Automatic annotation (TrEMBL):
It comes from Brevibacillus choshinensis. This is Flavin prenyltransferase UbiX. Residues 1-171 form the Flavoprotein domain. Flavin prenyltransferase that catalyzes the synthesis of the prenylated FMN cofactor (prenyl-FMN) for 4-hydroxy-3-polyprenylbenzoic acid decarboxylase UbiD. The prenyltransferase is metal-independent and links a dimethylallyl moiety from dimethylallyl monophosphate (DMAP) to the flavin N5 and C6 atoms of FMN. Keywords: Flavoprotein, FMN, Lyase, Prenyltransferase, Transferase. The keyword Kinase does not apply. The gene is ubiX. Dimethylallyl phosphate binds at Y151, K167. It catalyses: dimethylallyl phosphate + FMNH2 = prenylated FMNH2 + phosphate. Its EC number is 2.5.1.129. Pfam families: Flavoprotein. Belongs to the UbiX/PAD1 family. FMN binds at G9, A10, S11, S35, S86, I87, K88, T89, R121.
Length: 186
């Protein structure tokens, strides 16, 4: 299995990092793009260094490398996760504005009818945000905001992050066993 992972500059860089950690632990090939803004967010929001995050990738690409393997539909992958997905990135993907590698790779997933999961990070949402999410959904993408559930009784931030990442990986048929699944109220 091969998954493309884009980490945009939205708050919530830990979602992308956790995704990479899990894919790495499971031995799943990851093709990774970290935006310049994401590098700043990682440094501001987490205790990870950029080098530590990059080392989790099977293959790392520069955001400016518009000719990278993942920019072509002929490079076979199982899909892509953008975690977190900024509104800028959402808007660019929804409008096929492919001036950077994250948005180009996402556009490739849509045109090839492969799985695209966007962990959109923004609140509250305005009408433009919602319309862009609708466009992505109509094109076959999955909008998966990292909205925590609490039925699994999270004990810390990692439990909350893990549940959202687990839900995103579920979209690819990957059960990483990151959270207790709902079994009913009894």
């Amino acid at each position: 299995m091969k998954i493309v992972v884009g980490i945009s500059g939205a708050s919530g860089a830990i979602y992308g990092i956790k995704t990479l950690e899990v894919l790495h632990q499971l031995g799943i090939e990851s093709h990774v793009v970290i935006s310049n803004a994401a590098e700043k967010t990682i440094q501001h929001e987490t205790s990870y260094t950029i080098d530590q995050v990059q080392q989790l990738a099977t293959q790392l690409y520069s955001q400016e490398d518009i000719g990278a393997a993942i920019s072509s539909g002929s490079f076979k992958v199982d899909g892509m996760i953008v975690a977190p997905c900024s509104i800028k990135t959402l808007s660019a993907i929804a409008n096929s504005y492919n001036d950077e590698l994250i948005t180009r790779a996402a556009d490739v997933q849509l045109k090839e009818r492969r799985k695209l999961v966007l962990m959109v990070r923004e609140t509250p949402l305005n009408l433009s945000h919602l319309r862009h999410m609708t466009l992505i959904t109509e094109m076959g993408g999955v909008i998966l905001p990292p909205v925590p559930s609490f039925y699994h009784k999270p004990k810390d931030l990692d439990d909350i992050v893990s549940q959202s990442v687990g839900k995103a990986l579920d979209q690819f048929g990957i059960d990483a066993k990151l959270f207790d699944r709902w079994k009913g109220m009894n």
